[in-house]
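Hi C.,

You asked whether I'd gotten around to modeling the 76-residue construct. I have! Everything is below, sequence then structure, no commentary in between.
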Amino acid sequence: MPNVVKVTVKGQTTIPVDIRKALGIEPGDRIVWELDENGSAKIRKVPPMDVEYLKAVQATLSEWRSDTDEEAYRDL
């Protein structure tokens, strides 16, 4: 069943509880809006980032940050 909600003057709205439950959205979660070629919008929950993992990966990428690498891969 469709949910009809009102948009505030700030462009805000409330995500209906059944939608939040279906998507597993909780306070503090991030969501993303996507437009398809028909002009319809989709919403989905953004998976949380594992900051510790990203920091670990970042530490291994320094070997690829030379000027030579930047020049070689610039047009990719």
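If it helps when you're writing up: Strands lie at 30-35, 41-46.

Thanks,
B.
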